[in-house]
């Protein structure tokens, strides 16, 4: 086998509850991930060393050195296998970079699946999940897909039943937001307000809405504890969220650490109309309609 291609989805967080700052610098989370139909493709080709090239949207914003998470994933897989392997990784980007939709994590998950196949390792899914958890909090979900709740740093996953398809519109912002910067701003805002930060808890009503496929209830219960920090860093996102609500979105939220804004629609037709309204009025310069849940990293 000379090459392998894997398709891997973006995610939106329908609940992101952030606990108090821990001594190790992390936070305990309740993070409800939902995989949506915006996909990167990762191709792994036979090579003597591990390299990466990036094409498509935002490719100029993706590092191609050792800091690239897909390279790190391939090297971690080779180390786990106890051998030296090579692969040229070719990433076709469609997921926004630093957009709060786990684009880098998706590429890492794609690299794990592609290289596991290319190198003939035959490692079980559980081994790939373990390696993924060491790479980053969002990488395991990019492997898993569907809808799941993450606890701990977000990497301890439990699948959640979803009773239908949900339709989304994503308003893509110019430039990205560093996840670390947004968490630091969240901590700063809480300290300034002398806030008593509760332990994160899963929203039972949101779980019921997911399970029954009730888009109206889900829209009413979307939540993100990082949203205030993201809006403080990027105030121009607030009018975008307001515009989505005015145009009939069932719910409007910053996706993860931002700056992508996510809007829940009634159905596919409403999602298309909402996307057109946001761009026609200038509330967003680029929108993408998508649906979820979808499968995680998948061979194509």
From TrEMBL:
Domain GHMP kinase C-terminal: 206-283
Source species, domain of life: Bacteria
Gene Ontology molecular function: any one: 4-(cytidine 5'-diphospho)-2-C-methyl-D-erythritol kinase activity
Family, per entry: Belongs to the GHMP kinase family. IspE subfamily.
GHMP kinase N-terminal domain sequence ranges: 68-146
Organism: Nonomuraea marmarensis
Protein name (database record): 4-diphosphocytidyl-2-C-methyl-D-erythritol kinase
Gene name tied to this protein: ispE
Pathway field: Isoprenoid biosynthesis; isopentenyl diphosphate biosynthesis via DXP pathway; isopentenyl diphosphate from 1-deoxy-D-xylulose 5-phosphate: step 3/6
